[in-house]
Amino acid sequence: MTQTTNPPPNTKETQNHDDNKQEEEEEKERIVLIKLGGSSITDKATIETLNDVMLEWIANVICSASSNNNNNTNTKFIILHGAGSFGHHMAKEYGLRGQSHPAPSNTVSSRSSSQLQREHSMQGLAKTRLSVLRLNWEVCKSFIHKDIPAVGISPFSIPCMQAHGGDSKGSMSNLARVVRDSMDAGLLPVLHGDACLYGDRSGILGGDTLAFGLGTHELLDVDEVIFMTDVDGVYTSDPNDDIVDGDSAELMDVIRVDESGIILSDVCASGSSHDHDVTGGLRTKLKASADIAKNGIDVKIVKCGSASAVQAVLGEPIDRGTIIRLDPSS
Question: What SS3 state is found at 314?
Fold first, then answer.
């Protein structure tokens, strides 16, 4: 009887298999876009006044989250902040508004737009940008002080970028590419709402509009979007009113949207409580969140500085806040 023996294992193939398996595990990536509300990181009632406590808090949270990646997940962050008291006051003074649609073709070199009006609009653009760039510098500085290599990125600098956002001329794709390259290089991209050209005038490209444009772009493949605001989330009615029709405002845990981005719940979507806000407040935030969520990306709205905000950053279930997500039955 001939005894057969199994051939010795191919240790090289086994090693290669193990290396490939390990490489696959190491390549698991989690991309999180965090939109910091301007009212959270500044005193929005007082022109160009920082909320230093909140800036240090978010820098500490990102520092901790970046150094505590687990489950073979490499979490990378994109920071996007509003202008708060560093942009809205100046924008309102010069009549710059948030835009959601391309400028009508008849506004470009329109004879009805006087040279004086155009010059006034460009003065507003320049002064608003100067103000918001100061804030972006401060935000980047707060991260750099924690040894996080943050780099400021301005939408205005992207060729063909207009105040409504959009990608008809590749501007949002170019911005997404800059963000992607920055992350791949180990940098923390820090973007901001900006004043941009809008036809032959200027307007505001708000942070919420940017959150949608970047949060759904295929180059970035964002897994989650977090809105950090000065309230706990979205309520059934204005929480600033103690009683509405006999009922107090209740925080909504989940808001579902259909595949068209239509919100399937009754929510309070009043505008900003700040008179100088030029970007639409909660209504714009909800629209952007719904448009993100319809793509299957969860959006979490939490209070900046809260335990739930930390949980959201770490990818843990949140105790208090609002999640906007695609309805599975739609």
Answer: helix
Give the total residue count for the chain.
330
For the purposes of burial, counting CB atoms within 10 Å of the CB of 63, is it exposed (0-12), middle (13-18) or buried (19 or more)?
A: middle
Q: Can you point out the beta strands (E) in the chain?
A: 29-36, 74-81, 150-153, 188-192, 194-198, 201-205, 224-229, 254-257, 298-303, 322-326
The residues near 55 (Cβ < 8 Å, ≥ 6 apart) are 41, 138, 139, 142
pLDDT digits (tens, 9 = 90+) for 120-160: 999 999 999 999 999 999 999 999 999 999 999 999 999 99
In degrees rounded to 5, what are phi and psi of residue 113? -85, 110
- Which amino acid makes up residue 288? A
Q: Which residues of 195-217 are buried (b: 16+ CB within 10 A; e: fewer)?
A: bbbbbebbbbbbbbbbbbbbbbb
Token readout for 133 is 């760039």
Which candidate, 70, 172, 190, 183, places its Cα nearest to that of 132?
A: 190
3 state SS of 144: helix
When pLDDT is cut at 50, 70 and 90, the band that residue 279 belongs to is very low
Residue with tokens 């909800």: 286
Report the C-alpha dihedral over residues 45, 48, 54, 59, rounded to 10 degrees.
Answer: 160
Q: Strands 74-81 and 29-36, how do they pair?
A: parallel
Record the tokens describing residue 58, joined without a space: 């978010």
Whole-model pTM: value is: 0.85
Report the C-alpha gap between 75 and 69 in whole angstroms: 6
